[in-house]
């Protein structure tokens, strides 16, 4: 069964001193400070490149995506919206958009990856832990968060986030109704959030803590 | 689908929020959500809420370091394309607009393709002297790619620098691009190595005006050198020239001019 908890807080779970530092760097980037861009690059290059490579599976394309994303920040830093999340989430969303754009351009819409074989649920696993920026999340927390997903949620998130499929394409691919896919995506993300909140936040709101911390 | 962006209700945005966070909407839907968020009084907290689950996905990726050259290339391109100062970070919708993304991708894709086919064998040690707001270019490939990037920016002018005929067929040569915002990116080769305090100095010479010093660099045994400098005068028809100076900080060029070229808008 898919979990039904629907936390409503607008706050982002992973924020804190690192995000304040990021905002300060962004302010310097906005003034045209090349050293600030370099600092931002040093902070996020590994996450950005790993994400781009995970999606494109093409080192050259991943490099283009990462460079394009940082230049996008350089040119359009004023588009960062403080109210809508951390710098990290914003920046990785830019990387993600561009990586998805790259693979959607590369393949005709009708030609989706692995048309027959479903994704391996094991594809969402824990390979490593980010050292700095994401280092607040410990391995056990991530493992529990991923374990909290149902197989169909994991499949929907994998196909959408890393595979570049739209929800409509996921529905076609899996044979599930579109409404069901939307529900799996939403509840999957909320399940991850919920599982992370139990571990990341020192003082989570005492609303719907998952018993035992795992599904 | 019609060409316009469809107006969505708040409820429709909430229904699409999961797909939006996952980037799993089609282009029209995603544009419609962005348009709604840009003008809606409701902060649509559900989007940040759902995005809070993404870090778990990030942690589930194999960690791969990008090639070291990517940083130098990025900084070189950025140096050649400095943004207009905007002051404090404004609170605006975070999504980047599609036209920007497409335009920038077109430039980068083209330049990256050209850079990829440039085969440049000499990657010896050479140095870059930072002067003012000067970016660091670590390899000749990076510097040539940076010139191409800068030259591909709308409105930029480019020049091929060659030695005066008197110096024979094997004099130094170079490529330069000057952006409308006054960034000069220059890649030179076949220069004699500098010694002591010597530097090669780049100049931008607008006809009728004094030469403007625009960055200097040292050269090692490989004979190559490069700069990415800000505050160059921008004018099609200006000359980019290189001289050898006894030390950094020259305000007037020491003759002879070793290589020079007249800037012009690239044609295709």
List keywords for this structure.
heterodimer; A: 215 residues; mainly alpha; 59% helix; globular; disordered N terminus; disordered C terminus; B: 268 residues; alpha+beta; five-stranded antiparallel β-sheet; four-stranded antiparallel β-sheet; 7 helices; 9 strands; elongated
Task: Explain how this protein is built.
- The complex is a heterodimer of chains A (215) and B (268).
- With 215 residues, chain A is mainly α.
- Chain A has helices at residues 17-30, 34-56, 59-76, 87-106, 139-147, 151-162, 167-174, 178-200.
- Helices cover 59% and strands 0% of the residues of chain A.
- Chain B has seven helices and nine strands.
- Chain B has helices at residues 10-21, 27-39, 45-51, 54-59, 69-79, 98-117, 140-152, and strands at residues 134-135, 157-161, 173-178, 184-189, 199-205, 212-217, 225-229, 239-245, 259-262.
- In chain B, the strands form two sheets. A five-stranded antiparallel beta sheet of chain B has the order 1-7-4-3-2. Chain B has a four-stranded antiparallel beta sheet with strand order 6-5-8-9, with no helix packed on it.
- In chain B, a hairpin with a 6-residue loop joins strand 5 (199-205) and strand 6 (212-217).
- The longest helix of chain B is centred in the middle third of the chain and has 20 residues, at 98-117.
- At the A-B interface, helix 1, helix 2, helix 3, helix 4 and helix 5 of A face helix 1, helix 3, helix 4, helix 5 and helix 6 of B.
